[in-house]
Amino acid sequence: MEQTENIDTQRMELSKNNLIKEVKGKNRLSNVFIAMNIVSGIIPFFIVVWIVGMLMDGTVTLDKIIIAGVIIAVFQIMKAVFYVLSIWKAHDSAYSSLAELRVNILEHLKKLPQSFFQERKVGDLTNIINHDVEQAELYLAHVLPEITAIKSILIVVALSVIIIDWRMGLALISTVPLVFLYLSFLNKLWVKQEKTYFEKTRQMSEDLVEYISTIPVIKAFSREEKKTQNVLERMKSYIIWAKKTTIGTSTPMSLLTLFLEGGLIVLVIVGSILLINHEIDIQRFILALILGGIFSSSLAKMAAYHHFEIVFENSMDNVNSIIGVLGEKRPEKYQNLETGDIEFKDVNFSYNEDENILRNVDLVFKENSVNAIIGTSGSGKTTLANLIMGFWKADSGEITINGRNIDSMSERDLSSLVSIVQQEVFLFNLSIEENLRIGKKDATREEIVEATKKAQIHDMIMSLPQNYRTVVGEGGTKLSGGEKQRISIARTILKNTPIIILDEATASIDPNKEYLIQKAINNLSKDKTLIMIAHHLSNIVNADQIVVMEYGNVIAKGTYQELLGTCKLCQKMVKEQTKVDNWKIKGVVQ
Prior knowledge:
The protein folds into two domains: 280 residues, Up-down Bundle (ABC transporter transmembrane region fold), CATH 1.20.1560.10; 239 residues, Rossmann fold (3-Layer(aba) Sandwich). With 590 residues, it is α/β, with parallel strands linked by helices. The strands form two sheets. The protein has a six-stranded mixed sheet with strand order 6-7-8-3-9-10, sandwiched between helices. The protein has a four-stranded antiparallel sheet with strand order 2-1-4-5, covered by helices on one side. Helices cover 65% and strands 9% of the residues. The two termini are 65 Å apart. Helix 6 runs antiparallel to helix 9, helix 14 crosses helix 16 and helix 16 runs parallel beside helix 17. The radius of gyration is 35 Å and the shape is elongated. Strand 4 and strand 5 form a beta hairpin.
């Protein structure tokens, strides 16, 4: 197990390094423009000092001044042109990377198993897609060009001073090793702080997403709820920690200043000695001082931008925590897939190592039959449906459709065979028609109307001001639970798969609409294999097969009448359902 974890860690680290290399690689052309910009800006200094030298020697002429002026003007124009090109290319690469990263993340999320989304929170994933990807754009468009420019300046200036006099050149770069040695020490401190920062930011994002999504519950229990205060306390704690971190970061930077300016001080001392001994002239000394000042200030900027390097790497680490996760490997699309019996063969499944959800399940759902799965809460009913849909893979055993293992099917092929209407229906913030077309994107208006009529929702849609063009709101908030459920059923009718799973599909339906929905389900199930997960037993009386689940085991199978005579759990459920149906409030409020 430990060896496997080490391999996974190494793979993720390699994946992150490749991601960083790929993202940074998009700025190669921008880096070339930046280097040309720096060289174009340094050359005029040499020309100016050359003119100053001729003025001091008395050898300057008008022609030489004009030539020097023209050369300086040309290089200044080149500097401006290369600067514009570098900024344009840097921003072009940055926004391309931003879009590409988000598209890659979203495409990769579709390939990940359902277990990934149980382990990761919505707030965490949202923070990565928004905040961390934005950090990549900020780094590529602003930070990386600056870092590249600074590195170019340091190299060009150091070489220039060495050319002027190798002793002053060595003096200028003498403290550079100390700077990078001290930065490597600070790097360990900053990396740890940044990880803590990102963790606290992630936690705050998760708290806010959860808080906003549960406001109705919080308001309902406003007298006793402590959630608001807890969220505010964690936000205050985050602010206090951020302030302390800022102080802890700025204090070591003050000591770094000593090393940053040390090279210039050594240069002044060495240059002065050489000047006194007449080993260099005043022009070279002045030029070395000018370049030394540029070198020192650039080195200071380099140290400041080092922090952004750490932030960027942390952001890429977070992005890689999604992209670097291996997706489900499914084969290419099969041709001419046909439906048939659904068979579970000794299937075992668990969401984690501590608890088995399904144990040695053997089942057959015959083609074009109506089946029901009943049982107590947590018995594994919905898990059976999720396995058929391919949301999870069985730990052992196999599930087949028409004799073919569903693990060997492509996602598109499995989707073409099986549809599910879940208890929790999600609708996109689009029109009703666009939500329906998810079932069949090229459906005609006649097909859409026919499907909604079968689902008993057409009349309601037509009563809306914009009928089928009505936007349903985020998650379908403008519709009732029953209305969303019927639209989901209509969407499934449009998809027209041979196998349909109803996971408590009538749970949100108004009692006076239940008969109509049952009629819609009957229309839906014609010439199809129907699997219903139900608690209300009156809905499954006519099922061809009822499967009774308890603690992850199939304890009985048969028709309604057969189970009433042989299955104690089924008898108990019928008895309790009868009590619920006949339940009345008898107390009187005084």
